[in-house]
Write a structure and sequence with these properties.
Elements (H helix, E strand, L loop, with lengths): L1 H11 L18 H11 L3 E4 L7 H6 L1 H21 L4 E5 L28 H21 L3 E6 L1 E3 L12 H15 L3 E5 L5 E2 L1 E3 H14 L2 H6 L5 E3 L5 E2 H12 L4 E5 L8 E2 L4 H6 L7 H15 L5
Parallel strand pairs: 1-2, 2-3, 3-8, 4-7, 5-10, 6-11
Antiparallel strand pairs: 6-9
Length: 305
Amino acid sequence: MVGSAVLSGLRRKGYENIVFQNMSELDLRRQQNVFDWLEKEKPEAVIIAAAKVGGILANDTYRAEFIYDNLMIESNLIHGSYISGVSKLVFLGSSCIYPKFAPQPMKEEYLLSGFLESTNEPYAIAKIAGIKLCENYYRQYGADFISLMPTNLYGPNDNFHLTNSHVIPALIRKFISARNTGSDFVEIWGTGKPKREFLFVEDLAEAVIFAMEKIDANTLYGAGISQINIGTGKDISIAELAETIAGISGFKGKILFDTTKPDGTPRKLLDVTRMSSFGWKYSKELEDGLRSTIEWYQKNKGDRS
């Protein structure tokens, strides 16, 4: 999802000399393969959108894979980029890097200030390692490598698998499936009380390109922070989100909450003051983005994962 949005964004901005690979073509966990590819292509700039991702169930089930795969991907790409002489690198992390009970909204300075949420701790630790790799390649070698921390993302080309996806695509699939089959209820994990912030993936792509062009490592690390938050600065409860998706999808039944299942972090809202100070702001409001995503899903996926 993220890679395809960034690729489309680069093309819209007029970039033509673009090289890219996904993990079906190049296993980013294998160091020599990555080094050989970087040496062959000699990119001037690298954007790391590749990652092993998923929702609460996937994070808590595949804990070893989430930490190992993500550590390997980012380590190989960041070190390989330094060796091959990459001029600019942008690494994408996740808002789950912040402590479970961090003050809200979460400022960049809150990194490593408390305990992580247990269900996605392996993924978060891997992403924190990537942030610190970028920071210390700058501090030791002067590399212009920076990290962006997006909030929860959604949009076209998302993963709509019922158990391995994030909350928005999972809810979209559940509600459309229930509507199509005439079910009178949809069950959702947790209490519905946690609040989450969501960013349309095309807005993230614009932020990534903006950062690549206009934010350098000296400015970032000189401000005493290791990463820049990317989001809307607005959040919504899972219950409200479900009601909104149900309404757009045309589902008329009841929404039930399975309170035996985990909620995850009570609230995750990013402080986006710093990115705003650079001159960037999101453009797509949540309801408009949900409509676009639901339309894309119905056209391209139907009721398939």
